[in-house]
Structure of Exodeoxyribonuclease 7 large subunit:
Amino acid sequence: MNSDSSFSSSLPAGGDAVVPVSMLNRAIGTLLERSFPLVWVSGEVSNFTRAASGHWYFSIKDAQAQMRCVMFRGRAQHAEFTPREGDRIEVRALVTMYEPRGELQLNVEAVRRTGQGRLYEAFLRLKAQLESEGLFDASRKRALPAHPRAIGIVTSLQAAALRDVLTTLTRRAPHVPVIVYPAPVQGVGASAKLASMVEAANARREVDVLIVCRGGGSIEDLWAFNEEVLARAIAASELPVVSGVGHETDFTIADFAADLRAPTPTGAAELVSPQRALLLRDLGQRHEALARSFDRTMERRAQQLDWLSRRLVSPAERLARQRTHLQQLGVRLASAGARPVRDAQARFALVQMRWQRWRPDTATHRATLQRLTQRLDDALLRQHERHTARVATLAARLDVLSPQRTLERGYAALLDGQSGRAVRAPSALKPGRRFTVHLADGTADIALADVQPRLTDGF
């Protein structure tokens, strides 16, 4: 094959030639890249890690085998989702070799979902079941004791998480005793043993709060904390339970069943333990506040005692004071009886003065009214005279222009007998037609027998 020839050509000739490991790994990597094209591979995600550089490192596995995978940042930032532990996915990858370590790996170019892994599916089913039963309800969660008398830890004696928890408790609350209830945290039957330790802690009643914890790991490593038996034991616990399993991104069924979840075992230790330095500081502040309060109380009592001693007088002096007081009250009573009369008189005088000021002067107004009446009568008379003279003038002018005056000067008005219109032209005078003549002293109807019209410019 061409791949074999290229592989052999990349190595030194001769059967006794010595080949460096780097050259051999490079040749194998080249052979793999040329022999296997891009291929889709399906499996379940395990040991997923996102590096600070943005690259993804994880393994993809099935029941028989697994393969390490790397997805560089340039391609990972375009992925539609971030795989999680237990997800079943498909990756489009190239088979390569990581030459520095000689490890076979898949260089992933694309990733897509194919469903969640078996363990994660079981996790979701159990979570939904217990949630429907009310084991995760917030109403059943209990508050942690502010000052526990003893703290219990359920974990493995060989777990690194136990050392972290003990170190934190020693630093924060060295005065609080710690009791460890040992149980394996992974493997067959681990969940049942963890549950039995939770029940034993409740039965012995020697602690006030309980920590169930272990360090981080894959979903398989943490599976003991996803079993129903442990979840029900935590939910039934009368002691408040804090779950500190794995890292901050890890969630287990025990986290939901516990009264409080901590992101890490160290965080769980910090949640249940009061910090000794803060307690001592608070105690000192309370002691100082109590001392100040006591001093202020004593000062107030001493001041009150002085005030009472000043008020303590002899009976004779008290009677003299009361007699003087009665005399003062008598004087005030007498002055108080006369004061309303004086006040009423002063108010009456003030009102009378105001009334006199605003009382109307009827004589002046009456004179003004008579003067205005005379002026109105004079004005009306003058206006009547003017109107009478104007009417006389207009009557004279009208009389001058009256048609009767024209007729009295010898003129006559000739009207057509049929139409009643004035005759103005000689052509309208036709024989046999009847006319009406208006004169100064009356009218006459005439009929013309003969007419000789003559046109003239006037008389």
